[in-house]
Amino acid sequence: MFNKYFTTLSLLFLCTSIDGNIIRGRIILPLSNIKLPSTARLLVEVQDTTMADEKTITLGRQQIENLQQFSINYEIEYQKESVKPSHQYSMSARITLQKQLLFINDENINADIENGDNPLTVDIPVVQVSEVPDDQSQPPPFTDEPSNRRWRELVGKTGEYAMEVIKRAGFTNVVIVQKDTPLTMDYRPDRVRIFVDDSGIVNQIPQNG
């Protein structure tokens, strides 16, 4: 009897220890009834964004296809052993059609996976960065040649979001510049530098040159 009880407890402990934690929620586009292309793809990730000047570490992701319309439910499983004390974790959501970005979250969405509930519920609002084509089998076309531009509206947005918006304007040489990065002083009308703070947020008006 004791051995059976001990075995049951051991199996229960094993199942509990190997199960991952869950983040779930909705991808939302407020005040919108846009119909999404069935060939579009949604990628949702939970990322360790503690070190803004280094590559983010992905703890878990989910890719969803056959999209219809907003809102879109997601659920990501991640291993609790990968969560480090006092680190900052954020959510990322992108909807693409082939290689063209259609929607992205333009603000930092915090995920309190260290102290929050399990499962943790986090809704992710996104913004539209390019038109959804009428012919849903084709990606949206790019715009005309680059011209002298300034993007005042991108101040306060994430560097990644700003890069996608500027590339949609026809600029291909777009770089995110971290604090204290050495720069050349040459003028290049086809180049746009996006200056960000330690949190990866745009803190100067991007412009080409």
UniProtKB/TrEMBL annotation:
<dbReference type="Pfam" id="PF09619">
    <property type="entry name" value="YscW"/>
</dbReference>
<dbReference type="InterPro" id="IPR036354">
    <property type="entry name" value="Prot_inh_pot1_sf"/>
</dbReference>
<protein>
    <submittedName>
        <fullName>Uncharacterized protein</fullName>
    </submittedName>
</protein>
<keyword id="KW-0732">Signal</keyword>
<comment type="similarity">
    <text>Belongs to the protease inhibitor I13 (potato type I serine protease inhibitor) family.</text>
</comment>
<dbReference type="InterPro" id="IPR000864">
    <property type="entry name" value="Prot_inh_pot1"/>
</dbReference>
<dbReference type="GO" id="GO:0004867">
    <property type="term" value="F:serine-type endopeptidase inhibitor activity"/>
</dbReference>
<keyword id="KW-0722">Serine protease inhibitor</keyword>
<dbReference type="GO" id="GO:0009611">
    <property type="term" value="P:response to wounding"/>
</dbReference>
<dbReference type="Pfam" id="PF00280">
    <property type="entry name" value="potato_inhibit"/>
</dbReference>
<keyword id="KW-0646">Protease inhibitor</keyword>
<dbReference type="InterPro" id="IPR039366">
    <property type="entry name" value="Pilotin"/>
</dbReference>
<feature type="signal peptide">
    <location>
        <begin position="1"/>
        <end position="20"/>
    </location>
</feature>
